[in-house]
């Protein structure tokens, strides 16, 4: 038996005694692949989504943030869907809360 037999089961003649032995050959491989995909892709993505949702729910006036586009600003006001950021002196932009990527430590933004 070689490694390729786990992916592609060998074809046996109809009357052969080994014909029924390979019927579950691919199932363990599929299960291992699903578990691997879960721990390498799905679980970390869910963790990042939960952290981002927490960040957006805790957003308040005075926080310094970075948007997805790389704009750094200080939060002036927050409502359900939008936040107003001051990106320079007397320059205020309105962005969607989903567009905010991360929160910076206090004093990072020199506005």
Provide a descriptive summary of the structure in words.
- With 111 residues, the chain is α+β, with helices and mostly antiparallel strands.
- The protein folds into two domains: 1-58, no CATH class; 60-111, SH3 type barrels (Roll), CATH 2.30.30.
- The chain is built from two helices and five strands, in the order H-H-E-E-E-E-E.
- Strands 4-3-2-1-5 form a five-stranded antiparallel sheet, with helices on one face.
- The radius of gyration is 27 Å and the shape is rod-shaped.
- The N and C termini lie far apart (68 Å).
Biggest sheet, in brief? 5 strands, antiparallel
Biggest sheet strand line-up: 4-3-2-1-5
Helix content: 25-40%
Mean pLDDT: 88
Low-confidence stretches: none
Layout of helices and strands, plus pairs?
Layout: H1 4-7, H2 27-57, E1 64-67, E2 72-78, E3 82-88, E4 91-96, E5 100-104
Antiparallel strand pairs: 1-2, 1-5, 2-3, 3-4
Would you summarize the structure shown here?
The chain is α+β, with helices and mostly antiparallel strands. The chain has helices at residues 4-7, 27-57; strands at 64-67, 72-78, 82-88, 91-96, 100-104.
């Amino acid at each position: 038996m070689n490694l390729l037999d786990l992916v592609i089961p060998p074809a046996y003649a109809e009357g052969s005694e080994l014909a029924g032995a390979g019927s579950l050959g691919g199932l363990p491989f599929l299960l291992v692949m699903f578990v691997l995909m879960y721990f390498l892709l799905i679980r970390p993505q869910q963790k990042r989504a939960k952290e981002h949702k927490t960040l957006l729910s805790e957003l308040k006036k005075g926080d310094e943030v970075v948007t997805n586009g790389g704009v750094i600003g200080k939060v002036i006001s927050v409502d359900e869907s939008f936040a107003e950021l001051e990106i320079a002196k007397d320059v205020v932009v309105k962005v969607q809360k989903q567009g905010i990527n991360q929160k910076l430590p206090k004093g990072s933004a020199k506005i």
